[in-house]
Amino acid sequence: MNDFMNQIQHFSDPGQVINATQISVCLGLAFLLTIVVAKTYQITYRGVSFSPSFMITLVICSMVIGAVMLIIGSNIARAFSLVGALSIIRFRNAVKDPRDVAYIFLAMGIGMACGTGFYTVAVALTAITCAASLLLYFVRFGEHGLTERIVRIQTPITSEFETVFDNAFKIHAEQFNLISAETTRMGTELELTFSIRVPQEFSAEKLIEDLSRLNENLRVQVVGSNHVLDL
To answer: 83: pLDDT confidence band, cut at 50, 70 and 90?
Structure first.
C-alpha cells in the first residue's frame, strides 16, 4: 500500500513549475500551426455553407488544448479534476460534414503535441496532413464525372406527379430520384424535391425552362449537392 501511495505522489508532482518561455512557445506554436491548418481548410472547402467562425474555433481549440496539457503535466489529480470539469460541457451543434471532425481532431492533436513539448511532432503533423489535404483537393480525390443537385418544384396537384417530370429529367440528368412530396397553399399545390445526378456540362437554365413548361410556370429551384445541404 505504501508503494502504491509513493507512486501516486511521484506521478502527481505538485511542485511542477511552468515557466513563461514554455507557455509562450506552446501557445505561439499552436497558434501558428493551426493558422496553417485553418487556411488549408479554407482552400480545400467544397461546401456551400462555409463558416469563418469554424476557422477561428480551430485556432482557439488548439491553443486551449495546449494550455490544458501544460496545466495537467504529469499530475494525475489535475487530470481527473479536468475530466470531471469538462464532462459537464455539452455540445448540441450537429457537425454536417465529417471532414470538419477530422480538422477538429487535427487541431486537438497539434495542441496536445505542443502542450507536452513534442514540437517536432506538431510541426510534422501539420505539414504532412495539410500537404495531404491539398493534394487530395487538387487531384479531386473521390469525385466522379457526375455531380449531384437538388431540384425543388412547385406544381398543381395531379395524380401523376411522380412521373410528370421524368422526360425532362432524362434529358438533363443521368439519374434522378424523388426525395419528398408535400402539399402547399392549403393543399392546392405540391412541392416536390428531387435528387439528380448530372454531367459536368449541366445547364441549370435549360432544366428550369423545361420544367417550367410542365408545372405551369410555378417555382423551380435548383440548388447544390444533397451532401452539403439540409433537406
So the answer is: low
Q: How confident is residue 230, by pLDDT bands cut at 50, 70 and 90?
A: very low
Q: Is 26 exposed, middle or buried (0-12, 13-18, 19+ CB in 10 A)?
A: buried
Residue 209 has pLDDT above 50, yes or no: yes
The domains found in the chain, sorted by start residue, are: 2-138 (no CATH), 146-223 (3.30.70.260)
pTM of structure: 0.63
Query: At residue 144, does pLDDT exceed 70?
Result: no
Q: Is 182 helix (H, G, I), strand (E, B) or coil?
A: strand
18 vs 189 pLDDT, higher one: 189
How far is it, in rounded angstroms, from Cα 177 to Cα 162? Answer: 10
Pseudo-torsion of CA 156, 158, 161, 164, nearest 10°?
Answer: -90
Other beta carbons within 10 angstroms of residue 199's beta carbon come to 11
Of the candidates 45, 40, 24, 178, which has an alpha carbon nearest to the alpha carbon of residue 115? Answer: 24
Cα 7-12-14 angle, rounded to 5 deg: 135
Place of cell 494550455: 67
Listed residue (70, 83, 56) closest to 27, CA to CA: 70
Quick one: DSSP state of residue 194? E
Cβ-count burial of 101 within 10 angstroms (0-12 exposed, 13-18 middle, 19+ buried)?
exposed
Calculate the dihedral angle through the C-alpha atoms of 119, 125, 126, 128, rounding to the nearest 10 degrees: 140
Closest to 117 (Cα-Cα) out of 13, 19, 25 = 25
Strand partners, 177: 195
Alpha-carbon span 205 to 203, nearest angstrom: 5
